[in-house]
Specification:
The chain is mainly beta and about 260 residues long. It has two helices and 16 strands. It has helices spanning about 10-15, 175-190; strands spanning about 1-5, 30-35, 45-50, 55-75, 80-85, 90, 110-115, 125-130, 130-140, 145, 155-160, 165-175, 190-200, 205-225, 225-235, 245-250. The strands form two sheets. Strands 1, 2, 3, 4, 5, 6, 7, 8, 9, 12, 13, 14, 15 and 16 form a 14-stranded antiparallel sheet that branches. A hairpin with a 2-residue loop joins β14 and β15 (about 225-235). It starts with a strand and ends in a 6-residue tail after the last strand.
Length: about 260
């Protein structure tokens, strides 16, 4: 597993590429459009992760993501974690440069949420509801490793044979709008289109999803004197758009290594 406590808008495409391929635009901000197919291969990109305990450096070769989580709240920076598998682990002696990302970090307060009825949203669709306090999106694009009796100690290949799944959890202020949107949809098992958008005025990221609320906890707590509601939604397939999840990152990153 890997955790990025503060992910930058330039790093985000690197992690998302472990679950699918996107071709960036030709001018900055470069648009990385992760529009996962539900029926064909998404051609994920492998990376090598290097770690050290101060004595020995190790390389986890050909890593792919089984699941990725993106989360943010009002008091911190957007963070990312990923559950990965590697083809093998080997000693490593390469000299690697260390540095701090020059891309902007993604402040949690710059996210905004939009609800788009029962239709899968685009990057400009939906009605803003400014009562979101925090969110966490965990998804798996169905990648799994495959190993055979093939005369080697490393796994042979991977496949995209597992279902595409995901869960979006949100804490919202328990306003009349939140009740009519989320609690009523939960009671009726109605799909809802959701857009979460981050922007600093130059770069942006859009999480576009279709969910069915599967759990709504009324009066879940209180923050700043306001009652809060906890909403959990499961990603579902939208037949009209043939989508379940799409993430678009308009970044300063021109190409992945």
């Amino acid at each position: 597993s890997a955790t990025v406590p503060a992910v930058s808008v330039g790093e985000l495409p690197l992690w998302l590429s472990m679950s699918g391929t996107a071709t960036p635009g030709t001018a900055s901000p470069y648009a990385w459009d992760y529009d996962w197919s539900m029926t064909t291969s998404n051609n994920p990109k492998t990376y090598t992760l290097v770690a050290t305990d101060g004595i020995q450096q190790y390389a986890a070769n050909y890593c792919l993501a089984e699941s990725i989580t993106i989360a943010a709240d009002r008091s911190g920076l957007t963070n990312l974690s990923a559950s990965l598998f590697a083809q093998n682990i080997a000693k490593n002696s390469a000299t690697l440069a260390e540095g701090t990302p020059t891309s902007p970090f993604m402040a949690g307060r710059l996210w905004n949420a939009y609800q788009h009825g029962s239709t899968f949203p685009g990057t400009a669709d939906g009605t803003a509801y400014e009562y979101l306090l925090d969110f966490s999106l965990e998804f798996s694009s169905g990648i799994t490793r495959q190993a055979y009796l093939a005369g080697t100690t490393v796994f042979s290949t991977h496949s995209e044979s597992n279902p595409f799944t995901g869960t979006l959890t949100m804490t919202v202020s328990s306003t009349a709008s939140a009740v009519s949107t989320w609690y009523d949809a939960y009671r009726a098992a109605t799909p809802k289109g959701v857009r979460l958008t981050w922007s600093n005025g130059t770069y942006s990221a859009h999480i576009l999803a279709m969910i069915v609320p599967t759990e709504v906890q009324q009066m879940a707590g209180a923050e700043d004197g306001l009652t809060t509601m906890a909403v959990t939604g499961t990603l579902v397939y939208d037949t009209a758009s043939a989508k379940s999840l799409r993430i678009v990152v308009n970044s300063d990153l021109a190409a992945v290594p």
